[in-house]
Amino acid sequence: MKTWYGSNFKLGMVGGGQLGRMFIQEAINYDVQVHCLDPDQEAPCKNLAHSFTVGSLNDYDTLYNFGLDKDVITVEIENVNIEALEALEQLGKKVFPQPSVLSIIKDKGIQKQFYIDNNLPTAPFKFIDNPEQLTLPCVQKMRTGGYDGKGVQVLRAAADLEKAFTTPSIAEELIPFTKELSVIVARNEQGETVAYPAVECEFNPQANLVEFLFAPANITAELEANAQQLAREVIDKLNMVGILAVEMFVTEEGGLLINEIAPRPHNSGHHTIECNVTSQFEQHLRSILNLPLGSTEITQHGAMINLLGAPGYEGSVYYQGLETLLTYKGVHTHLYGKAQTKPFRKMGHVTIAAETMEEVKLMATKIKDCLQIISI
Fold this sequence. Notes:
The protein is an alpha+beta fold. It has three domains: 10-95, Rossmann fold (3-Layer(aba) Sandwich); 124-173, Dna Ligase, domain 1 (2-Layer Sandwich); 177-375, D-amino Acid Aminotransferase, Chain A, domain 1 (2-Layer Sandwich). It has ten helices and 21 strands. The strands form four sheets. Strands 10, 11, 12, 13, 14, 15, 16, 18 and 20 form a nine-stranded antiparallel sheet that branches. Strand 10 and strand 11 form a beta hairpin. The longest helix is centred in the middle third of the chain and has 18 residues, at 221-238. The radius of gyration is 20 Å and the shape is globular. The N and C termini lie far apart (53 Å).
């Protein structure tokens, strides 16, 4: 009998970055062998994967051939060759999230239209082909190719137009909001769905990346229930198997608008490793293997701080202040194994865990500037 664990079962991970690395760390506990494909021969997954293949994620033949001997295939990045995944699915391979889902999410224009077609709340938008079609103020987003804050520009005045993209984009109405939330939700093949408590995000304005997140979010019980329900509705309407991050804005009126979604483990769920019964990475594994989903209950209050490459430094990485950081109680360090740093590159994260949010925020203030990621 073939099982989902042991040497007879092969799980393919398309992408070998830090998300794959943390996923493998959980998969090892289940005796699941993970095989990775990534174009970077020094990718973070290189030394953890059962096998590691160097190759393009966007080349049809490379991805198709990689998947031929795998039982289940998943992704840690959306920018992949969907046609190859569709062909593998037609061969009977299980591909989660499904290629049909990736097709929707990979293109922000199609993603936004999906919300409209399914009566899901989102900011008004229009499709544009060039900056002359922009109406200010707005948020311009490249339809494809954006990641980690790249491909998004807030344009408030005519002087900002020099930052506008010339590629096919969407222009969203600039909505005043009071908070940005994220809800991680997971679903298996049987349709079982679980949602994690909402987290509150704070952004680095220079890099347009999440710099802090606090879990749970400081919101009312009613808004918490509405956010979790909205995330469940999104994953159900996608009919998606896997884990999904749903980023939302809280409007000044107390409503919710979907910003973006990501069909994979997400930066806003890293705290779950220390602060929830089941981490988002274990939950993703359970969902794509059609196993019972784990408890999302919070065990500790938490904050997550992204460790970004310091401005002005590029080259071999040096973690200045790491030993000092390790002296603090309740601070958990995750380094992603990237040998080279550059400004605002995600090099790791720190989770702060404590019994109360007051303790968490106090500790976050103490360690915020403790560690600098520079080069040598």
